[in-house]
Amino acid sequence: MSIYSDIGLNTSSSKNSTSSTSSSSKTGSDSLSQADFMKLLTTQLSYQDPTKPVDNVEMVSQMAQISSLSGITSLNNTLNTMSSSMTSSQALMASSLVGQTALVNSSSGYVTSGNTLSGIVPTEADGATDLTLSIVNSAGEVVRQYTSSGSVTGDIPFTWDGKDSNGTAVASGDYKVKANGLVKGVSQDLTPQLYGQVESVTLGNTTTPTTVALQGLGSYQLGQLLEISK
Questions:
Q1: How far is 124 from 153, CA to CA, in rounded Å?
Q2: 104 close to 110: Cβ distance less than 8 angstroms
Q3: How do the domains of the chain map onto residue ranges?
Q4: First and final C-alpha spacing in the chain
């Protein structure tokens, strides 16, 4: 009888004697659980030498290890639960985005013949005067141009009907929106932002961000969406 046999552990000396029955016995784990560790500690106390009792400092240290193990296990369980909850919430949010309209920092996109292209031109707090909006095809040709006299401030919305200056629907293809205006009396190029309909959402993970596919504009990370509306 030994301290190891009391808690169900076999020593090397007893291994040979039990080899004949090992095939019918259940294989034990190579690692100790918290319950095993506690059982080992209490058995150790029962077998201590009365003339050399276990040091109190060592006892406290072992108890602290048990407490740390319990805390880490609880923390891991909590993090796993939070991760599952966040994934479910993200999936629910992502599914609700399909069909919505999102605004992104892009001045070009693919336009199907007969469709429109809309967005805004940010003019910041200083505003702009004599604003010019040009629609340019992939060959660099201006197919439509809009002008506005006077002063404008803030986000200026626009919608291109997909037609050239003669009122004819343009061919399907890539088109770029260019804007220019006078800011404090100085000519300055402004950067338009475009709206696109959400076609699909690809859920990410710990290493890959969630991406949103916008009609005619491509894919964007969820954090790159400036605005979402119906």
A1: 7
A2: no
A3: 3-12+32-94, 101-229
A4: 77
22: left (phi over 0), alpha (psi -120 to 50) or beta: alpha
Write the CA distances from 157 to 180, 195, 207, integer angstroms.
14, 10, 36
Q: Give the pLDDT of the chain (230 residues) as one tens digit per residue.
A: 444 454 444 444 444 554 544 444 455 555 556 676 677 767 766 766 666 665 555 655 766 666 676 677 777 777 766 665 566 666 667 778 889 999 999 999 999 998 999 999 998 777 889 999 999 999 999 999 999 888 888 899 999 999 999 999 999 999 999 999 998 888 999 999 999 999 998 887 777 888 899 999 999 998 899 999 87
CATH 1.20.1510.10 applies to domain 101-229: no
CA distance 178 to 180: 7
